[in-house]
Design the sequence.
């Protein structure tokens, strides 16, 4: 028995290395997840509280230490409350559902071409639009309200949906698995106070949704005729047809295909 224990101890360095590596990977993934979100500011606030707590213990500020002791005793609950949206987003990233997963190269090219054509046409005519493209995270929670379409991606159909006299032009058009699935969907608006007040409801809805799920949102401004793409709560504005095609191809292609190309 002692020989077996000594044998296992000989591999302890490998277990420790694996342990440290896993923790480092988890921390790295968490940093990527919260990068550019409000969670970073909240983490800074928690770090300041911890620093004050350490300082209170060192300097003997017993009242402040007692208050912080009671606060930090419920730190897990505090973290869950503060980062509930980020935790939710992390958990629902488990599944994988690439937009082009089941399409051939010819079909991919056709869908992309029709989508870009529709956005450019609407931008030229100052027709406002909000198009959401599902990637890895399912959008089922946001499809309860809306009109089911389940149609092939067509520039004319997309444009007709967002015409001012269309009864579903105010909502979002959702694309899943290379098809138009649902229109007239209502999305959550962003609560980020740092968002420019010049952005309208469509832009705020696009930012709000992509803060919660892994999706790509295209916004055509009715006022300016500009095309924007929103991912992860971050917006890229004033895209022409070439730039829009390039951005969408990079964002929507399955990871496996991107790896093969690179």
Sequence:
């Amino acid at each position: 028995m002692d020989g077996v224990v000594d044998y296992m101890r000989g591999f302890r360095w490998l277990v420790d290395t694996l342990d440290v590596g896993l923790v480092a990977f988890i921390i790295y993934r968490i940093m990527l997840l919260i990068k550019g979100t409000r969670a970073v500011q909240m983490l800074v606030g928690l770090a300041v509280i911890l620093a004050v707590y350490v300082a209170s213990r060192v300097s003997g500020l017993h009242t402040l230490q007692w208050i912080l002791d009671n606060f930090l005793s419920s730190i897990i609950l505090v973290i869950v409350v503060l980062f509930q949206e980020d935790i939710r987003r992390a958990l629902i990233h488990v599944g994988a559902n690439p937009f082009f997963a089941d399409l051939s190269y010819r079909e991919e090219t056709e869908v992309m071409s029709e989508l870009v054509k529709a956005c450019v046409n609407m931008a030229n005519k100052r027709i406002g639009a909000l198009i959401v493209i599902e990637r890895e995270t399912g959008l089922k929670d946001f499809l309860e309200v809306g009109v089911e379409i389940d149609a092939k991606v067509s520039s004319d159909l997309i444009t007709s949906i967002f015409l001012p006299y269309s009864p579903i032009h105010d909502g979002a058009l959702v694309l899943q698995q290379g098809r138009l699935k649902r229109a007239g969907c209502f999305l959550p608006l962003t609560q980020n106070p740092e968002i420019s007040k010049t952005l309208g409801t469509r832009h705020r809805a696009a930012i709000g949704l992509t803060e919660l799920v892994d999706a790509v949102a295209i916004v055509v401004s009715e006022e300016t005729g500009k095309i924007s793409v929103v991912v992860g709560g971050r917006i890229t504005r004033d895209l022409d047809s070439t730039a829009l095609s390039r951005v969408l191809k990079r964002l929507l292609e399955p990871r496996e295909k991107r790896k093969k190309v690179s």
User: Anything to note?
Assistant: The first strand starts at residue 129 and ends at 134. The chain has two domains: 2-91, 105-261. Residues 255-262 have pLDDT under 50 and may be disordered.
